[in-house]
Every structure is written in structure tokens, then in C-alpha cells.
UniProtKB/TrEMBL annotation:
Name of the protein this chain belongs to: Benzoate 1,2-dioxygenase beta subunit
Protein family per UniProt: Belongs to the bacterial ring-hydroxylating dioxygenase beta subunit family.
Alphabetical UniProt keywords: Dioxygenase, Oxidoreductase
InterPro entries (UniProt xref): Benzo_1-2-diOase_ssu (IPR017641), NTF2-like_dom_sf (IPR032710), Rng_hydr_dOase-bsu (IPR000391)
Gene3D superfamilies recorded: 3.10.450.50
Organism: Celeribacter marinus
Gene Ontology molecular-function annotations: benzoate 1,2-dioxygenase activity
Positions of transmembrane segments: none
PANTHER family in alphabetical order: BLR3401 PROTEIN
Any single GO BP term: 3-phenylpropionate catabolic process
Enzyme Commission identifier(s): 1.14.12.10
Entry-linked CDD domains: ring_hydroxylating_dioxygenases_beta
Length: 175
């Protein structure tokens, strides 16, 4: 798999809605196709990956350093470690057999664009199949993307899982 649909040349430097959509679809495709090394290329080295938890008052936690999170990696090295565990069967509970996933994205919105950064949000639904069981997870993601270079990179990722009453461990490919 390549990222040809999202790589830009200097002569095609515009990054509008169609490019955002192609970027998000390509990232989702990398997860669905289990192309972990390709998926990692979407992230900047300093990118935090955070999925806050819902507290007892149905509010999202706000501080990943001091409150419960469902997933929190302060930078790409945490994401790379997770992928290493998936690829080398060193996952504690969720990777084998790797589930089949299908990500569906909707309601893609560009929230702001300033300088070389773009903030966006979108809804997602992931269908997962493993052990003869189909599960579904859904939520909203908030990305900040560095669009100053020819290859856009995610520099901040926050995922809000809306159905957090689940019967197994949630992993990066579920969202």
C-alpha cells in the first residue's frame, strides 16, 4: 500500500476538503489492511495519541497526565511500541488473531486552518470481527495536521469513544 493519494508535490500545495478526506480515508485503509508501517507514516514524531475516559458524571477526563484515559501515548514512540507488539505477537490480550476491521468516516469538518496547521473533526464507526463475533465502536476524532510540507502529518490526535461500555480491551485498530 502506498500513500500516493495523499502525497503532494510542491505544485499541488493546496490542502482542501478533498485532500483532507483522502488523507483520512488512507489512514483508515492502512488500519483496515493491517499495514502498520504505512499507518505509522501518518504521524509526526511528537504526536500525542489520546483517548480520554468518561468519568462518573458522564464527562470526559481532561488531563491525560493526571486522570484516567482509555489510551494515551505522549508521542509517536508509544504508538510505534503498540504496533511492534501487534506485529510481533507481544500483545497481552487483543491482537491474536488480528481482527478484521472496517472503518467508516463521516461528518468530516475543517475546524480551522492557520499557517501550516489544520484542525479537523470527524465521526467514525468501526466494525470489528474476531472469534465469530462482530463488534462495533463509534466516536469522534479531533486531529491537528501539519500541512506545511508535501506530506501531511498528524501532530495531535484525540479520540472520543462514544460507546465505552465494551467487553474487551480497546486497541488502536478499533478506533
Amino acid at each position: 500500500m502506498t500513500t500516493d493519494t495523499i502525497d503532494r508535490t510542491a505544485s499541488t500545495s493546496a490542502f482542501g476538503f478533498n485532500e483532507v478526506q483522502a488523507f483520512l480515508f488512507a489512514e483508515a485503509r492502512a488500519l483496515d489492511d493491517r499495514q502498520w508501517d504505512t499507518w505509522l507514516t501518518f504521524y509526526h514524531a511528537d504526536c500525542p495519541f489520546w483517548m480520554p475516559a468518561w468519568d462518573d458524571e458522564d464527562m470526559l477526563t481532561e488531563d491525560p497526565q493526571n486522570e484516567m484515559s482509555l489510551i494515551y501515548y505522549p508521542d509517536k514512540s508509544g504508538i510505534e511500541d503498540r504496533v511492534f507488539r501487534i506485529q510481533t505477537d507481544r500483545s497481552s490480550s487483543t491482537s491474536l488473531p488480528e481482527p478484521r476491521t472496517m472503518h467508516t468516516l463521516s461528518n468530516i469538518e475543517i475546524l480551522s486552518q492557520e499557517g501550516g496547521e489544520m484542525k479537523l473533526r470527524f465521526n467514525w464507526l468501526t466494525m470489528t470481527y474476531r472469534y465469530g463475533t462482530t463488534d462495533q465502536h463509534w466516536g469522534t476524532s479531533f486531529y491537528t495536521i501539519d500541512i506545511s510540507e508535501t506530506k501531511p502529518l498528524i501532530i495531535n490526535k484525540k479520540v472520543v469513544l462514544k460507546n465505552d461500555q465494551i467487553h474487551h480491551v480497546i486497541d488502536v485498530y478499533h478506533i
